[in-house]
Write a structure and sequence with these properties.
Layout (H helix, E strand, L loop, with lengths): L3 H8 L19 E8 L6 E6 L2 H9 L12 E9 L2 H11 L2 H10 L6 H10 L2
Antiparallel strand pairs: 1-2, 1-3
Length: 125
C-alpha cells in the first residue's frame, strides 16, 4: 500500500514559471494577450500581445513603449496564452472593442472608486 504522503507527492504538478508555462515540447512558443495597469496612476490600463511576457513588461517599465512611457511603472494584471500569434492578436483586438472593454472591466480590472472612474475611462487604452 502506498502512503498518502507518497501519493500526494506523485500527484503534484511540476513548478512553472510565474509568467506562464508551455505545454508540450520546450521548443514550442506560446503567444500571450496581456493586460497591464499603471502602479503610479491606477486606472490607466494597456492591452497588448507578446511571446515573452517578462521581457515585454520590462520594456513597458523601461519606457520603451510610447503609449505607456508616461505612466511607469506597470504591473501585470492578467494574461491569456494562445497557440498562435493570430489568436493572441485577435483577442487583443477584441479586448480593445466596446464589448471587449466591458468584459475586461467586469472580469479583469478591479473597480475604482466612483471619483476615479471618469478619469480612468478617458485615459484607458
Amino acid at each position: 500500500m502506498v502512503s498518502s504522503e507518497a501519493s500526494a507527492k506523485e500527484d503534484r504538478l511540476p513548478s512553472v514559471s510565474s509568467y506562464g508555462w508551455q505545454a508540450g515540447s520546450s521548443d514550442r512558443t506560446m503567444f500571450y494577450t496581456y493586460l497591464i495597469e499603471s502602479i503610479g496612476h491606477p486606472g490607466n490600463h494597456y492591452i497588448g500581445h507578446t511571446s515573452d511576457l517578462k521581457q515585454r513588461l520590462a520594456e513597458h517599465n523601461a519606457g520603451r513603449c510610447s503609449h505607456t512611457a508616461k505612466f511607469v511603472p506597470w504591473k501585470l494584471k492578467t494574461y491569456i496564452a494562445f497557440e498562435t500569434l493570430e489568436q493572441a492578436q485577435h483577442f487583443e483586438r477584441y479586448l480593445k472593442s466596446g464589448s471587449g472593454h466591458a468584459l475586461a472591466n467586469r472580469h479583469f480590472w478591479v473597480p475604482l472608486p466612483t471619483t476615479q472612474r471618469s478619469r480612468a475611462t478617458r485615459n484607458s487604452v
